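WP5 quarterly update. Target: YmaF family protein. Source organism: Domibacillus epiphyticus. Length: 127 aa.
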Amino acid sequence: MEIPITGLIIHSDDSQSDSEHSHHLFIHSWNGRPVLHIHHFSGVTSFNAGHDHQYAGKTEPAPSGVPHTHKYFTATSVDNGHKHEIRGVTGPAIPLPGGGHYHMFNGVTTTNGAQPHSHKYSGSTSD
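Structure tokens (predicted):
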């Protein structure tokens, strides 16, 4: 039985001698199914104009096993009669000692409110 696989092979410079070399294989799909993952993120914005906002969401999918970032988008909670949008791209993957990884993110919300203002936000995704 043949299983179709797509991926990426990267030459590794960690070989011990000139006559030997190695490659890293990063699989993108297995049997036609993408090998993707997402992260959850949440937090509280900065306190501006007498209030703050809570937010939570999931990143867009990205391939596992390769250097990557994730796009993200969500809306804040409604506080003081309005909400804001949060969107951006995470930083690169940060490996965890036991395996897995997380990403850092930060930015400024859209401007909104009776007294127009924005909020800063920052945090890290789930692993």
